[in-house]
Amino acid sequence: MKLYIAIPATSALVYRAYSHNSLTPLGIVVAVLTAIAHSVHPWSAPFALLIVFFIGGTAVTKVRLCIKTVLHAESEEGFGLGADREQVKHDVKARLTLSSSGASDGEGARTHIQVLANSVVATVLILLHARQLLARDKSGNASYGCWPYGDDLLVVGIVANYAAVAADTFSSELGILSTSKPRLITSPRFREVPPGTNGGVTLVGIFAGLLGSFTIALTSVVLLPFCVVGLTSRSGKIFGDNQPGFDGGSGWGWRERILWVGAVTLWGGLGSLLDSFLGGWLQASVIDARTGKVIEGLGGKMVKLIQAILGISRANHCFHKVPVTSSSRGPSSSSLRRRMPASSEQQQRNQDSKEISGEGRASRRIESGLGILDNNSVNLLMALIMSVSGMIAASWCWDLPLRSILET
């Protein structure tokens, strides 16, 4: 990647993330390091995929907010041109989800953990592939200049990662706009769940995911240095009679490229569905019992529930909503407070007021999921599975040993 392109592009991303508070300070640092790792690759495609993913995710977030703002304006009386647009966006988001901090807004600056969850797998693969290309260049291997058909499984893994995370981002941001209620993908009967529930899928979300992976597929087919049919590689080394890959050669003709775009798009869509399945199975979706809204953990972390206080019980790692009775209270409130310092007593009072409604019931309940992983872990696991399985699939289709990803 040319430095005169990478440096200004990275600086622009940093400025936007800082000015719009879309990343935490540590998140910005990790994002810069990720961009540097992508830019050391000799090809421009890896860095471009990172940029397209970032811009695409930002764009669909803005589209979602704009659509919901328009709907909000049409449904509210007295909404005028002089209204505070940012406040309207906040109110719109508040209608869908809650923050675990108690605020009526699930959004916030993305952390370094969220940045790594989406990009660390691709970063490792990019560095491995850059090492391979540099080793081939020293040995005079012609494939350094272009990508032959049926070779370089690492390229497949890199593109598969970004196709999957882009599909998941588009699906999450736009799927919540569906007028129909989501269906839980892990439920045998695909029961309806509140918007924002982990594992909830809609047709709008599925097609939005395919759109996201298509942007990555289109970027890759334009910028990857495919070996052209009947021509030499970019390094000037002649392959000889370079036939299309479907005809036994190493060239990428129009048929091979169309197949590539279709395969990457579908693979990304499958990644979005896998993320929904893993989220619905391994990640707990916590519902505010009074509003029926999903509570989102700050920075993709788990939403915690208070156990064994005023009627909230836990059995076999599952939480249940139970009425408060004299037998279920356990130790009295006064005896608990006698054991705690003043600061802890005040914190306990705050927790009691948050967790217990006026009717003496738990104000939070788990809608679905085991609560083993948080959102960041689910995203990372999905990206890893889709990248590795993509390389395995390509290895089988191209009859190329999987161990080639470690060879130089």
Characterise the protein shown here.
By secondary structure, this protein is of the alpha+beta class. The chain contains eleven helices and eight strands. The strands form three sheets. It has a four-stranded mixed β-sheet, with no helix packed on it. It has a two-stranded antiparallel sheet with strand order 2-3. The longest helix is centred in the first third of the chain and has 31 residues. It is globular, with a radius of gyration of 25 Å. About 16% of the residues have low confidence.
Low-confidence stretches: 77-92, 307-345, 351-360
Distance between the termini: 20 Å
**Radius of gyration, whole Å:** 25 Å
Helix coverage percent of residues?
Answer: 40-55%
Count, helices = 11
The shape is: globular
**Structural class of the secondary elements?**
alpha+beta
Instruction: Provide the residue-averaged pLDDT.
Output: 79
In the sheet with the most strands, the strands line up as 1-5-4-8
Beta content comes to 5-15%
Q: How many DSSP-defined strands?
A: 8
Note the main sheet. 4 strands, mixed
Write the H/E string, N to C.
Answer: HHHHEHHEEHHEEEEHHEH
Task: Provide a concise account of the structure shown.
With 408 residues, this protein is an alpha+beta fold. The chain has eleven helices and eight strands.
Secondary structure elements and pairings:
Blueprint: H1 3-19, H2 25-39, H3 45-75, H4 85-94, E1 97-99, H5 112-138, H6 153-175, E2 183-184, E3 200-201, H7 203-223, H8 254-282, E4 285-288, E5 294-296, E6 312-315, E7 318-321, H9 333-338, H10 342-355, E8 364-368, H11 375-398
Parallel strand pairs: 1-5
Antiparallel strand pairs: 2-3, 4-5, 4-8, 6-7
Helix pairs in contact: 1-2, 2-5, 3-4, 3-6, 3-7, 5-6, 5-11, 6-7, 6-8, 6-11, 7-8, 8-11
